[in-house]
Amino acid sequence: MKLGIVGLPNVGKSTMFNSITNAGAECANYPFCTIEPNVGVVAVPDERLDKLAEMYNPQKVTPAVIEFVDIAGLVKGASKGEGLGNKFLSHIREVDSIVEVVRCFDDSNIVHVDGNINPIRDIETINLELIFADIETVDKRLDRARKQLKADKKAQVEVDLLERVKKTLEDGKSVRTMDLNDEEKEMLKDSFLLTMKPILYIANVSENDLDNTDNNEYINQVREYAKTEGAEVIPLCVKLEEELSSLDKEDKIEMLKELGLEESGLDKVIKASYKLLGLMSFLTAGEPEVRAWTIKVGTKAPQAAGKIHSDIERGFIRAEVVSFDDLMKTGSMVNAREKGLIRLEGKDYIMQDGDIVLFRFNV
Questions:
Q1: Which DSSP state fits 279?
Q2: Rounded Cα–Cα distance for residues 195 and 133 (Å)
Q3: Who's near 329: CB < 8 A, 6+ residues apart?
Q4: The pTM is what?
Q5: For a tag site, which of 88, 269, 288, 322 has the least CB within 10 Å?
Q6: Which residue from 44, 38, 39 is spatially nearest to 65, judged by alpha carbons?
Q7: Alpha helix locations (H) across 172-237?
Q8: pLDDT tens per residue across span 3-27
């Protein structure tokens, strides 16, 4: 699962990528310093693993991970190949969700590609380029569907859907703003529409504005825009996050305390990104290893078992399950079992976030 970090040149996206992954992508105060996408795999912060590690003292702790891709900055005309438009669009097609960084502070020392700060204009610049690219995709598919309609009247459903999609795009709106049912989403899936991808907005603020984000006019503009897409907005100071990411764990905790913060902005971004992808974690715990396993929301027990090993899915008998909260309340698996809190679940059980599981199988 990949998330693409996008934004206009010089809004702080590559600095944020560095902070998330400590991958050291080149940063410079000029456009297109990121030409090939940088890729970083990052651990998903999960306090539950720390608690389980205290309980089991395992040899190894393995968190869930997600992948971030830092994509080259975009300018107007990208859908027609301007700047690095073709690269930008091809790289976005390859990611599952979008994290868009928008600049929400004034600083005369940092060049803005359009000369002044206007986060909604920045969002719409990127959005329009993605919309133009999607219109081209929809036109091609609509042409094929109309030809097919002459021989097969069942194609009318697809034609009607594509015409609705095209109308939405021509009105300057993303496909993700449409009220689509599961069948319609499935029908559009193989079109790989860019504006259908879920999105998370990062409002990059100055350190001085960090404790007053509710009154930041730029951020409030982004929040209003995001409501139309059902998207989340996370304010953070990218420069500060870069400093935090360079510290060891204890110094980072100390600095967060001094700033009056419970967790870093980037931890919030990573958690929100994981959720944006429709992902969750189930846990396994023992002396050899405490581990978080990534699955899609709605996954059933045998398929979750398959994440550990295909043989476990193939020979699945049952799952012994206790919720993380119940285990913490009772203090041990023995106590949880005595209180009847460990459940036996079968093949139809839908996994819940934070389930601690032991799979029984036979092959």
A1: E
A2: 9
A3: none
A4: 0.84
A5: 288
A6: 44
A7: 182-188, 217-227
A8: 999 988 778 888 888 888 775 555 5
